[in-house]
Write a structure and sequence with these properties.
Length: 397
């Protein structure tokens, strides 16, 4: 029943073992339930080997290009350099902060790589330039323009003060393109084509547009994750075959690792997948789902950044619906203009002022460096507790 999920975990174990060989031991408890089914066990072994092979091929490039290296920083001052291995990473004379997929120019000093400057790969430049021109015409303030550009194209020119305000209130995820944004776009497009009586074909069109968008913004981890999950969901609808959301989740997880094994070191990858895992595990209503997303993503936020806002849940319950309406209004403002230019401005001001009000409360942050070795134990233990509770609740209902 959950065999696809187990296979996806085997892919992850194989990929991660390429970087941390002892991690292979986790394959043993994963395979124990299948010891009587030789065919299933063989499939699991092949999935693990596939994950390892894909990661090995991805990290074979040992050549630097004029001193430029591809770097994934997964912890304060620690990162993985493609073709070189694990190193301490410094930005000049200070420790590097978690950031993934940068191309850095620097020099090695023992076990430390000192970054002199770096660039991040962005999306399709003509698309970004087109959106930029359309936003200039459809926004009324520089703050709204920069915010809309960040959430539509992924190019963040937002000033440090605004960034701090959003991150310190637990709403920083809306400043970047995430699975939430892709889901909002998918629902909007699907609704439009269903309204035009395209029937189930609307799902295929929506998936196609979502994948085109993923290409245009540079195949970010959270965008690829959301695109894969929406595609699998749409295919199940088209063939009238219901699928378990958790299987869809883990299939997307495995496919993403095969797509780009180095996303294992990406903060956005883990924050995205942990949040959606909690969302799926507690699906009773929107409140419990967002609570579940917070429970599972907060430890990863504490591991990567060492702090988290205490009002993450209530403020996101307010901000996410407004964000969805703003995104729809801003896109319509770019395409049509009046009256959506005014509604987009109104919604942005509402969103910004709510975040600003919470920020000005000066509430203390939860500051704690969650140990990496406790993350798997936390996820497994919390998952077991929730599943046992759900089983008990179903029996007594």
């Amino acid at each position: 029943m959950y065999y696809p999920s187990i296979c996806a975990l085997a892919v992850f174990i194989g990929s991660f073992s390429r970087f941390v060989p002892w991690f292979m031991v986790f394959f043993i408890p994963l395979s124990v339930p299948l010891y009587r089914n030789l065919k299933a066990l063989l499939g699991l072994i092949l999935c693990m080997l596939l994950g390892y092979l894909r990661a090995h091929i991805r990290t074979m490039d040992t050549l630097s290009r004029n001193g430029v290296y591809e770097v994934y920083i997964f912890d304060a001052g620690k990162g993985y350099i493609v073709g070189k291995g694990f190193y301490n990473i410094m930005f000049g004379n200070r420790m590097a902060y978690p950031i993934s997929g940068i191309f850095a120019h620097g020099e090695f000093k023992g076990d430390t790589f000192v970054v002199k400057d770096y660039v991040r790969t962005l999306g399709f430049k003509p698309f970004i330039n087109l959106i930029d021109k359309m936003l200039i015409k459809s926004t009324y303030s520089e703050r709204q323009y920069k915010f809309a550009k960040a959430v539509i194209t992924g190019v963040r020119d937002i000033d440090p003060e605004t960034k701090k305000m959003f991150y310190d209130t637990g709403t920083g995820h809306i400043l970047a393109i995430s699975g939430l944004h892709v889901g909002i776009i998918f629902v909007g497009i699907s609704f439009l084509f269903r309204f035009l009586r395209f029937g189930n074909v609307s799902l295929l069109i929506s998936c196609l547009i979502v994948w085109i968008y993923a290409f245009l913004v540079g195949f970010m981890p959270s965008v690829v994750r959301a695109s894969i999950m929406l595609t699998l969901y749409s295919l199940s609808k088209l063939v009238s075959r219901p699928v378990k959301p958790m299987n869809v989740f883990f299939l997307a997880f495995g496919i993403c690792i095969l797509w780009e094994p180095l996303w294992i070191f990406s903060p956005s990858f883990w924050l995205s997948f942990s949040a959606i895992y909690g969302f799926i595990l507690l699906p009773k209503n929107i409140l419990t789902s967002i609570f579940g997303a917070s429970m599972f993503s907060t430890p990863f936020a504490l591991y990567f950044f060492g702090k988290s806002a205490i009002l993450t849940l209530p403020i996101n319950l307010l901000v996410i619906p407004i964000m969805a309406l703003f995104l729809y209004s801003q896109i319509l403002a770019m395409l049509i203009g009046y009256p959506f230019t005014y509604s987009a401005e109104l919604l942005f001001d509402m969103l910004y002022n709510i975040v600003k009000w919470v920020y000005n409360l000066n509430l203390p942050m939860v500051e704690f460096k969650f140990p990496a070795y406790l993350l798997p134990a936390y996820i497994i233990l919390l998952s077991v507790v929730i599943m046992l509770y759900k089983k008990y609740a179903n029996k007594t209902a």
